[in-house]
Write a structure and sequence with these properties.
The protein is α+β, with helices and mostly antiparallel strands. It has a four-stranded mixed sheet with strand order 3-1-7-5, with no helix packed on it. The protein is built from one helix and seven strands, in the order αβββββββ.
């Protein structure tokens, strides 16, 4: 009989822990926003002025402006990316929509 009582106490303890976890999850911040990472870089011959170069985080679904400026003697060629959401990969000024996590874009230039 003592074993049965310990078993019931253990089950009640587990139930209490599960209930506490459910309450904790329900109390989480309802304004939490999923953020996606965009890595922006350039090749030789220019810079990305918007959003800049480096790692950026945006809320899911954000449309980000991409602006590449060639150095003197160079011209913009294209955006290379693992995204298929660049509005125009051959335009120096365009946009990318962040519909999944971790996209990279590289601005390419030529003489």
């Amino acid at each position: 009989m003592l074993r049965k009582t310990k078993s019931h106490v253990a089950k009640l303890g587990i139930l209490a822990i599960m209930l506490a976890l459910v309450v904790a999850v329900a109390a989480c911040n309802p304004t939490f926003t999923v953020k996606y990472t965009l890595q922006v870089s350039t090749g030789i011959g220019g810079t990305v002025t918007s959003p800049g170069e480096g790692l950026f985080q945006y809320p899911q679904g954000t449309v980000v402006d991409l602006v590449a400026e060639p150095d003197l003697g160079y011209r913009f060629v294209a955006w290379t990316s693992n995204a298929n959401t660049i509005a125009n990969a051959y335009a120096a000024t365009t946009t990318i929509t962040l519909d999944r996590n971790y996209y990279f874009v590289i601005a390419s230039f030529a003489e």
